[in-house]
């Protein structure tokens, strides 16, 4: 019997929140999670929806419990986090009872409906596969993230690091997963007018746009994309055109996708630093410029702010699992928690299973 929350359920959504393993203090992540279910939705922002939500934190109970006094939320005492030197086999066998393993096990037992963690990506992927399993027919899960492109457009990219190498068949399956996930979000946004939602457009990350460019694996994946009527394939996407957002979905193997993502994050950090440095002077001219361009500068900073796009879904797992960036702050973790609620309220996992 499925004990997880589904649309139409009368009981609250239960979110398992692993608060260890990230760069921020656990108390910061607790506040971010509480913000996600308390903050009213702003126009165009992701929302925790109208459903009641109960948070189940996994970490040092003595440190977290005072913050939850008088609330319906709870904390499970699991003060050990996954560290880099932990052998993966020990985590999978249960020799290492970390906060992450406790949270995944709670989700697998049906005592939580979704999971959010800022801990180790590799451990989260492995524990999710081991304890939750994958959807029928799924060979490997993939990490998918929404990114901001030109002119405010958004696109989704996968895989961003769940797999180091992928076969053409696995890349093809990632395209199907990304298409199904993007279609769920588009239909949810259009409400009852679902017949008006076009099929998502899919691109494949490559070093060039010519059909003979790139490794054999990518070229063979492109042929599989082209021959599948379920996909609206638009061809190769070069890295420097990634943020044109010309396609709704960009597919890559986990190695290339993770490098592209981290390179983009580094470029965004540099842009924010340069902008701040150039506008930090106290001269009358600089002060006047800041005052005149305050609104525009704010929008530029937001465009380069990774916290606004934090949260990546582990697609293909038989449950809702959201990976928060390890460097997430309070605002970033809030967005990751909102993403988990959105995945439940839109029926993401069920729609993925039907789409694949």
How would you explain this protein's 3D organization?
The chain is α/β, with parallel strands linked by helices. It folds into two domains: 177 residues, Isopropylmalate Dehydrogenase; 167 residues, Isopropylmalate Dehydrogenase. Helices cover 41% and strands 15% of the residues. It has an eleven-stranded mixed sheet, with helices on both faces. Strand 5 and strand 6 form a beta hairpin. Helix 6 packs across helix 12. The chain is globular and about 55 Å long. About 4% of the residues have low confidence.
Fold blueprint:
Layout: E1 13-18, H1 26-38, E2 53-59, H2 61-64, E3 74-77, H3 88-93, H4 99-108, E4 114-117, H5 121-131, E5 142-148, E6 154-158, H6 168-190, E7 201-205, H7 216-227, E8 232-237, E9 249-251, H8 254-278, H9 284-292, H10 294-303, E10 312-315, E11 320-323, H11 330-345, H12 348-355
Parallel strand pairs: 1-2, 1-4, 2-3, 4-11, 6-9, 7-8, 7-9
Antiparallel strand pairs: 5-6, 5-10, 10-11
Helix pairs in contact: 1-11, 4-5, 6-7, 6-12
